[in-house]
Amino acid sequence: MTTGALVHGDVARHLDFSDEEHPVALQLGGSDPADLAHSARLGQQWGYDEINLNCGCPSERVQKGAFGACLMAEPQLVADCVKAMRDAVSIDVTVKHRIGIDKNESYEFMRDFVGTVADAGCTTFIVHARNAILKGLSPKENREIPPLRYDAVYQLKREFPELEIIINGGIKTEAEIDLHLQHVDGVMLGREAYHNPYLMAGFDARYYDEAGDPRSRAEVLEAMLPYIRSQLLSVRAGDTKGGLRLNSITRHMLGLMAGLPGARHFRQTLSDSKRLALGDPALLLAAMDGMTMR
């Protein structure tokens, strides 16, 4: 969320979320300390659990707004932004960044950036283990073409053992997660969490020692129905807080059955615009018909 959208826009529309989503972080894009402090304060007032500063997005639109990965070239400005936000809120303020920008593959560049920002009180850094190419690559290409250099993130943790270092970039399996956790404090899943969300079903037991078997995919889907019904009721009632239409929910569930027989049928059913327009949550149950569930 850009600071401009929060300073000048509809705060409720941008920041409202459902209690079921906790814990949830508000990632901010901006480079003005005062605007970031104001936006962070709003985030805390609206119940967010963490404020994160985006120093990793490489898109040209973001660069024109003077934030994202280009901020890595201005570590003292980022430090000033972090301090302003930390002074404004009591929740965690974290930073997400790349390991470098453009052709600068110097480890020292990233190390000095982290050291400067850490001096301002940031203790958690989420590191996408690729350089950001600011000119010539699209955001999608920036997630795929620059080579992954996980060792640079491992070295960062060795050099700053007191900081929480979380690694991100190209991580898709539990085996890969387990390997990274031998070197850093945490792992962030990006696209894989979206395209194959059921991968996370066993994480509570595997990584957080929580007892019990994970819900099946069918149980996950059925557990969504009360939430969907409440959102649709808000839409129909014209609730001032708003509500989500069915397609705004189902489009984020298309990967739930990834890897199972019938997954294509599931995706096609949940993408049927005519049936979605009817706003009937039973569409989710219809999508399961004919699938081999486990």
TrEMBL record:
Protein EC: 1.3.1.-
Cofactors: FMN
Keyword terms of this UniProt record: Flavoprotein, FMN, NADP, Oxidoreductase, RNA-binding, tRNA processing, tRNA-binding
Enzyme kind, highest EC tier: oxidoreductase
Pfam families: Dus
Highest rank taxon of the organism: Bacteria
Entry keyword rRNA-binding: no
Tagged with keyword Ribonucleoprotein: no
SUPFAM superfamilies: FMN-linked oxidoreductases
InterPro entries: Aldolase_TIM (IPR013785), DUS-like_FMN-bd (IPR035587), DUS_fam (IPR001269), DusA (IPR004653), tRNA_hU_synthase_CS (IPR018517)
Domain DUS-like FMN-binding: 1-276
Function: Catalyzes the synthesis of 5,6-dihydrouridine (D), a modified base found in the D-loop of most tRNAs, via the reduction of the C5-C6 double bond in target uridines.
Annotated NCBIfam families: PRK11815.1, yjbN
Protein family membership: Belongs to the dus family.
Protein name listed in UniProt: tRNA-dihydrouridine synthase
Species this chain originates from: Actimicrobium antarcticum
Gene designation per UniProt: dusA
